[in-house]
Structure formats: structure tokens, C-alpha cells
């Protein structure tokens, strides 16, 4: 949702016509009525009508998670790619995609191809929501790897940190490492909270101060950026201790959360700017 809000702000400032084109596509979404229901309940909280497209962008970005309960739209393997990270291995090469695997790299290209085609707006509506969502997901480092150790053996590993259990402090409840990184940006889906978070991130991480944005290939956002961050910052080069017991997580190092927060914020800011760029390339003036 934050990524969608940042993308909206960017397009509103530089390419407002793209917003109208995206809105026209999303109005043909098979579950657009759910958006209208959510929007109508929002308006009871005095949210301005002029913010409807902003909320539409937020909704589009989170829709793929909301659709997990619907077998028509649910594609659980599309949200990630599990490049194996094995700290004991001497190989430091860039990980290689697995041909034929329906992972996040496959999903992005598949949906991009549909949105780039001459398909109707109704045929593009679900794929464009997937593009919104996947650009966000690929910037979360734990959507790009699985840790392989004696504690987390092949073939599953730690499944992107979802079976790597930790506690933030000794008296904290046990959560997965994946959830910890998911929750670094936002603790609420309230419209005002999402909008304020997006505004704050854009002020702190301005586009012209993010040289990484020169990299425009989706695959490299996964392979060169997120995977590297997972190795070096998330798993601390294999030194981070976790538990396989979901009731008794290992306590994180004292400064871990303090270091993780700005990494997550930077990644989230970049995902919003890149989403705006992807949408403008697809639907901007040609």
C-alpha cells in the first residue's frame, strides 16, 4: 500500500494522465466492487473524494494478498523466488533463475506481457494489480531467498525466513524473521497511516538521492539487490541465530532492529519510485 501511494504521488506530480489510464483499467477489475465497498466505508471517516484514485493505487498494490483466499486468482509462488543462500558455500556468484519455475520473476514478466499487449482493459486489470504487488514484494529481501544450513536443510531451507523464528527482545513474543521484516514499515492499513508513511518516506529518501534507481531491470532488483541485502544485512552473512521452534524464537542482536529499519525504508521508497516508472513506461505518452 505504501509503495502504491508513493507511485501515485510520483505520477500525480509528473505524469497525471497515467493515473487516469490506470484507473480506467482497474474499474474493469472483477473485484472492483470490493474496492468500492472499502472506499465507501473510508468516506465515512471524512476522507476526501479527491483521494479516491490514491486509495485505488493502495488497493491495487495489496489486492494480490487479499486474493489469497480466492482460488481463481491465488498464485502463492508468484510472490517470491527462493534463491538458495548457503553461508558455508564458497560461491559468491549472482544467483540464477530456475527455468520453468512459476516464481516472482516469471510472474512479473507474464503480467507485464499482458499489460503491454493489445488486450482489453478488463483483461489487463488483474495483471496490472499483480505488477503493483510484485514490485513491492521483490524489494523485501526475504522474498528472494531461502537460508540453507544444517538447521534449515535442503530443499526447503528456512522458506524466506518464514520458519526462522526470532524475538525482538527477551520478553517479546516469537515471530518469524520474515514477519519482522514485513512489519518494519507499517503497523496499520489505515488510509491516513499509509499516506503519512508514504509522504514521510518520500521526504527522507528523495529520488535524486537514490543512485540505485539507475538499475531498471526487475530481475536485477531481485538478484543483485534484495538477495545481496538478505545475505549481508538480514542474515548477517550467516551469523544471525534463529530457531525452528515457533514458540521459542532466538533473541535478535541488540542493534539489529535499529539497523534493519532504514534498510527497509529505503527499499520501500525505491519500490514506489520504480513502480511509478514501470507504470509510466507502460501507459505514458508514446
Topology readout:
Blueprint: H1 2-14, H2 16-26, H3 32-43, H4 52-66, E1 83-85, H5 104-116, H6 121-137, E2 145-147, E3 165-167, E4 175-176, H7 177-182, H8 191-204, H9 218-234, E5 250-251, H10 256-283
Parallel strand pairs: 1-2, 3-5
Antiparallel strand pairs: 3-4
Helix pairs in contact: 1-2, 1-4, 1-8, 1-10, 2-4, 2-6, 4-6, 5-6, 6-10
Please tell me about this protein's structure.
With 286 residues, the chain is mainly alpha-helical. It has a single domain, classed as P1 Nuclease, CATH 1.10.575. It has helices at residues 2-14, 16-26, 32-43, 52-66, 104-116, 121-137, 177-182, 191-204, 218-234, 256-283, and strands at residues 83-85, 145-147, 165-167, 175-176, 250-251. The protein has a three-stranded mixed β-sheet. Helix 1 (2-14) crosses helix 2. The protein is globular. It starts with a helix and ends with a helix. The relative contact order is 0.18. The model has no long low-confidence stretch (mean pLDDT 95).
Task: Report how far apart the termini are.
Answer: 28 Å
Low-confidence stretches: none
At the fold tier of CATH, the topology name is P1 Nuclease
Average pLDDT across residues?
Answer: 95
Kindly give the count of domains.
1
Strand order of the largest sheet: 4-3-5
Give a brief outline of the structure.
With 286 residues, this protein is mainly α. The protein contains 10 helices and 5 strands. Strand 3 and strand 4 (175-176) form a beta hairpin.
Overview features:
mainly alpha; single chain; 5 strands; two-stranded parallel sheet; 51% helix; 286 residues; 10 helices; P1 Nuclease
